[in-house]
Design a protein that fits this description.
This protein is α/β, with parallel strands linked by helices. It contains nine helices and seven strands; from the N terminus they run βαβαααβαβαββααβα. It has a five-stranded parallel sheet, with helices on both faces. A two-stranded antiparallel ribbon has the order 5-6. The structure holds adenosine-5'-diphosphate (ADP) and zinc ion.
């Protein structure tokens, strides 16, 4: 399946994308993860991306589109992919259509994970992530004995710099102005399915499987 997951920052795209990639045995492509690993590695791309990410703004389309195009042209994407965090602008969506058309293929489906702003603000401020394996957690749902440590790899969890409150407000503004119009764009193409994000990850997963017509 060639799938895009849309949703506000903190809607839980990453968590659902990782699960779906595993289930469908296709690569998970997260532009946010690509930028963060470049920031960590101190690359030129990382330095450039960090300036935008820290402000809650988008990395320029010229940069982001090239990266995604290279990734989609790799062999492992032939059987499908889950795109998480891309496209985020109408220009990116149009380029994605062109990139796929050049490869003689097209998206099967676009999943919108719908969650309201209030829930999102709460979630992001309590989010803690593993800098090693990208697993993410919430302070309210961590067991006392596990607090602060990644269950997958044992690394000390950190708060993403862009999860600070001022940045979150800007990320939400950026989302409403630049990314939300994609919902109409894909609806018009008949590709959109909507899953309502729930409080519990498991419940969201149930909803996602249902709207995508997947067996649990
Ligand atoms: P979230 O969806 O929670 O904001 P991501 O990890 O998807 O987290 O993205 C983090 C940041 O990386 C974004 O706020 C933005 O600055 C940058 N970014 C990610 N994907 C894109 C994209 N497709 N276009 C431009 N910037 C992007
Ligand atoms: Zn980890």
């Amino acid at each position: 399946m060639k799938l895009v997951i849309l949703g506000a920052p903190g809607a839980g795209k990453g968590t659902q994308a990782v699960n779906l990639a595993e289930k469908l045995q296709v690569p998970h492509i997260s532009t946010g993860d690509i930028f963060r690993s470049n920031i960590k590695g101190g690359t030129t791309l990382g330095k450039l991306a960090k300036e935008y990410i820290d402000k809650g703004a988008l990395v320029p389309d010229e940069v982001t589109i090239g990266i995604v195009k290279d990734r989609l042209q790799q062999d492992d994407c032939k059987k499908g992919f889950i795109l998480d965090g891309f496209p985020r602008t109408i220009a990116q969506a149009e380029c994605l259509d062109n990139i796929l058309a050049e490869m003689d293929t097209a998206l099967d489906c676009v999943l919108d994970l719908a969650v309201n702003d209030e829930v999102i603000t709460k979630r992001l401020s309590g989010r803690r992530v593993c800098p090693e394996c990208n697993a993410s957690y919430h302070v309210d749902y961590m067991e006392e004995t596990q607090k602060g440590i990644c269950l997958v790899c044992g690394t000390k969890l950190v708060q993403r710099e862009d999860d600070r409150e001022e940045t979150v407000i800007n990320r939400l503004k950026t989302y409403h102005n630049q990314t939300e119009p994609l919902i109409g764009y894909y609806k018009a193409k008949g590709k959109l399915v909507v899953a309502e994000g729930k409080i519990r990850i498991e419940d969201t997963k149930t909803e996602v499987y249902k709207v995508l017509g997947l067996e649990k």
